[in-house]
Amino acid sequence: MSDATRTGGCLCGQVRYTVPAEPLATAICHCRNCQRQSGSALSVVAVFARDALAVTGALTVYEDRGTSGQTVFRQFCGRCGSPVLTDTERAREQGVIFVKAGTFDEVADLKPTAHYWVKRAHPWLPLPDDATLLMQE
Q1: With left for phi above 0 and alpha for psi between -120 and 50, is residue 38 left, alpha or beta?
Q2: Residue 124 and residue 137: Cα distance in Å, rounded?
Q3: Number of domains the chain contains
């Protein structure tokens, strides 16, 4: 990672991307669909201006219905299955896109501060005391 950009990609390397080094925000989603899609207890995403994202390689899109009721466009590598991007109509309107933080080449400096859909969080997973809890239902 350079001072100006952050890079990442899927497990097999077919999909690669570059974004600014600093995300606008980094958040954790505990909704059941993100749990299922990630195969884990949660999904960590970093938010970037969509026009700052440069992607090489083909992404496959799966349209999902989120907990909020809006369409979620889950973008993943069709070869290895790695989830790479999450998009919504509202994100498009706001000019942002969500990058799956686990796909970054370097992750040590990321610190999620917001947690979404915490009512669906696994009870064995403690939330940080300083976390902002959003959409708690």
Answers
A1: alpha
A2: 18
A3: 1
CA atoms within 13 A on the CB side of 107: 14
> What is the phi-psi region of residue 73: left when phi exceeds 0, alpha when psi lies from -120 to 50, beta otherwise?
beta
Q: What are the tens digits of pLDDT across the range 43-77?
A: 999 999 999 999 999 999 999 998 888 899 999 99
Q: Which pLDDT score, from 0 to 100, does residue 5 have? A: 96
Residues of the chain with pLDDT under 70: 1-3, 135-137
The pLDDT assigned to 135 comes to 67
- Which domain does 37 fall in, by range? 5-134
Indicate which CATH number applies to the domain containing 72: 3.90.1590.10
Would you call 91 helix, strand, or coil by DSSP?
helix
Q: Tokens 């899609």 sit at which residue?
A: 37
